[in-house]
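Example 3.2
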Amino acid sequence: MGDCAEVAGHVLVYVAPLMAAARALAATLAGEATAVSYPAMPVAIKTPACPVVVSPPARDAEGDWHFEGEAPDIKALFRSGGGDLLGFALTGQAVKERMALAKELPAILG
């Protein structure tokens, strides 16, 4: 395990995927076979001048980006043709919407 891995074609960076894998491994080693599942895991870049949160759509996702706001407070949403949220990018004050938007995203691997 490390701080970056590719799983089923998804590049998973930072701590959240590591923690999910470690929990599943620990349970499996303790005798309870546990599959790893990865919910949507937005990445936060905590720069004081302009915070950024990104949850990119899957590589093969079909849809369009829609942008709202003005710099530095931008909300970019990637939605399927049916309106499902598949990814987002937030800057400035828009990062406050991270949790609500993450709940709308499909799991990465589940």
